[in-house]
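Lecture 7 notes: from sequence to structure.
We start with the chain below.
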Amino acid sequence: MKHVPLVALSILFISQSGCAKDYSLSPPPDSEQITVTVKVPKELEAEVMQVMYRSATCKRITHGASGQRIELEGYHGIDVYPQRQGQSDLYQASLPRDGGGACQWRLSNVTFGVTYKNPERFGQDVMAGAGGGIIAIFDHNNSPRGGADFEVAGDLVLKRDYYPWIKENFLDGYIKRVSLIGEGGIYVAYRALQARHVHFEPILHSDFKLYSVGVKEKKKGNYITYTYPDGNVVADGRPDSKFLRLQAIRLAAESKK
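Predicted structure tokens for the same chain:
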């Protein structure tokens, strides 16, 4: 298996003693590798992976409400570009668990996912929106976006359904985005302490689109209008699970085939 090298970011900080300290990553050759693989549908593309390492050796200093000094683990983030495996739809990166260096960095978490490759296919000036994100946490710390939604033993293998969500918003300027709506939030976080392999397969149901049109002014009785792929229109302001409704519509349609 081909490993994708991490680019060591050489950052020199000046300590209180006046000496420069090297905070760069320097993974040893024999470091255990965690392989992250994304199976990318043809309409989507893999996002850059945001990888965080932590160090108990190189502390960061903050202060409490009373001004007391608080020492926390240092952290170091890098971007890793997943590499396409031949002519397949698999994109992969290998992340050393041991980040090495003077700070003895240890892999903490990785944030990754998929997004629309060509959002303009939904109209001129349409932008790619949020959704389709995964966070894999490999230690007992939170990620930059919070803690874990789920705990997983062993490798992390995910297969999740997604639907296109085309949103038009008018307040504070017009903008149109195409997002991915799945079960859970924009990012779903998993703690996988023993994982050596992470495999994410997003299933895009592109024929079942959700459209929403925002209000043009804020006033009582104005609500976002949602149009579902079965033709139903909802604009009553009541909360519901858009994902579960989309799932039900798709499954009903497929059962009639």
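Points to note: The two ends are 41 Å apart (CA to CA). Residues 242-255 form the longest helix (14 residues).
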